Amino acid sequence: CDPKADSTNSLLGGKYTPTILDTVLEAGSVREYTEVDVSKVLFEGYNGIVCAECGGPDPGIGCAGRGVITAIELMKEQGAFDSINPDFIFYDVLGDVVCGGFAMPLRQGICQQVYVIVSP
Questions:
Q1: What is the signed CA dihedral for 108, 48, 1, 113, rounded to 10 degrees?
Q2: How far apart are CA 112 and CA 81, in angstroms?
Q3: Domain locations in the chain?
């Protein structure tokens, strides 16, 4: 969940992809997210890794955690997790965020384990 939406481009040969939030907003509104076709936001990258970019609000505007919640809800509603049957799901989360929305994968039971990786 990052306004830059650059978490997956190294897996996609440098290509930037449409974000889930931008795609949802193009469909009308966040309340109509179930109308979004997940094939528009899922892309196969290096070694068959399925990638998606959540996106996020412009800096200082809105709640980035809400982007995580919306992305997870969309993927669940559309059955994306079932259809791609991932072994692992990785989230690249901003390091300076204090928002509780990033805990949604835990609260909704999507995650069995969480690893925090930091860099200096």
A1: 40
A2: 14
A3: 20-107
91-106 CB burial, b ≥16 within 10 A, e <16:
eebeeebeeebbebbe
Residue 32 tokens read as 């109509």
Phi, psi dihedral angles at 52 (to 5 degrees):
-150, 145
Residue 98: strand, helix, or coil: coil
List the structure tokens of 76.
């669940």
Kindly state the tokens that stand for 11: 């897996």
Using a cut of 0.90, tell me whether the model's pTM lies above it.
no
pLDDT confidence of residue 3? 61
Which of the residues in the chain have pLDDT under 70?
1-3, 29-35, 59, 62-64, 93-106, 119-120
Q: What is the pLDDT of residues 48-74, one digit of tens each?
A: 999 998 887 776 776 667 777 778 888
